[in-house]
């Protein structure tokens, strides 16, 4: 009995390891990120090393995959749907690969940058939003910020995006994914449109590449932490 009590942990024990509040630990349990804790006769939560490993896995996954995906992964794992969790991780890796390919495409385009001539556009807000995986309202926000400048069809009033507009939207989308603010993106696009002074964008591309590399390594660390949780005796006993 005494040995078992030694392995019991309080919310504060889990919180201190990561500089969290005890309320955050409780919230993670309530959200399904941590497995359910036992309660003392007085209603206090008691955790074990299994919960500590789950918290380590979640925080490691956050650094590589972001909070929403890390949350969904841990929720799936804790309800026994490990295959669903692995699929989510695979999708996150696929997104990073797509980001890398987009970066390479932007770099290739900039290597021989020249002004894009005016041409008839036949891309509308709905199809472009679906291509980027964003809401049409986001494109309209970018337009108000003068980052994307579609023309209006004189008969229907619909926004029409030319090849140059689509290029701008792709660049804005990639920059936003990289964490850049709209006001930081505006001068970059101005340089692209004028086909001169691309040094700021070149430096930004280098920053993207460094972020991709950091995220890849964070994903490796997250995978290791999650695997440690999955193979732990406590988790195996729950299967």
Descriptive report:
With 239 residues, the protein is mainly alpha-helical. The protein folds into 2 domains: 2-92 and 217-238, Multidrug-efflux Transporter Regulator, Chain: A, Domain 2 (Orthogonal Bundle); 114-197, Multidrug-efflux Transporter Regulator, Chain: A, Domain 2 (Orthogonal Bundle), CATH 1.10.1660.10. It contains 12 helices and 5 strands. It has a 3-stranded antiparallel beta sheet. The chain has a two-stranded antiparallel ribbon with strand order 1-2. Helix 2 packs across helix 3 (22-30), helix 4 (49-65) packs antiparallel against helix 5 (67-78) and helix 5 runs antiparallel to helix 6 (82-111). The longest helix has 32 residues, at 199-230. The radius of gyration is 24 Å and the shape is elongated.
Share of helix, binned:
55-70%
Radius of gyration from CA coordinates: 24 Å
CATH topology of the largest domain: Multidrug-efflux Transporter Regulator, Chain: A, Domain 2
Question: What does the main sheet amount to?
Answer: 3 strands, antiparallel
In total, the number of domains comes to 2
Please count the beta strands (DSSP E, at least 2 residues each).
5
Low-confidence stretches: 1-6, 112-119
State the helix count: 12
SSE topology string: HHHEEHHHEHHEEHHHH
> What's the overall geometry?
elongated
Q: Strand pairing plus helix content: what structural class?
A: mainly alpha
Mean pLDDT: 85
In CATH terms, what is the architecture of the largest domain?
Orthogonal Bundle
Distance between the termini: 24 Å
Which CATH class of the largest domain applies here? Mainly Alpha
Provide the β-strand percentage band: under 5%
- The multimeric state of the shown protein is single chain
Q: Largest sheet, order of strands side by side?
A: 3-5-4
